[in-house]
Amino acid sequence: MYQNQSKEAEKIFKYDELILEFQSMWNVKTKLLSVVTDATGIFSKSLSKYLRNITVQHEIKEQHNTAIVGTAHILRKVLR
Question: How are the residues of the chain apportioned to helix, strand and coil, as percentages rounded to the nearest 5?
């Protein structure tokens, strides 16, 4: 499943100020990588593009699994 593109743009816009602050404080070039997976496993269409930009090897399947297992863990704690 894919996340709505406007939601992705909203999340990137939300962190614009933080990026500018990092750049000015540390005098480094900063790029935001939107790697957000919804608790139900929904991700952005550009997730694979973002994952290629980082040196750590990740797979989309792992992102789905982590999101679903984390959600199940939270639900178990809450519903006890």
Answer: 60, 0, 40
pLDDT value of position 41: 63
Widest distance between CA atoms in the chain: 48
The domains of the chain are located at 5-78
Phi first, then psi, for residue 36 (nearest 5°) are -115, 125
* pTM strictly above 0.85: no
CA dihedral 70, 75, 78, 79 (to 10 degrees): -150
Which tokens is 77 given? 């704690």
On whether the CB atoms of residues 53 and 31 are closer than 8 A, the answer is yes
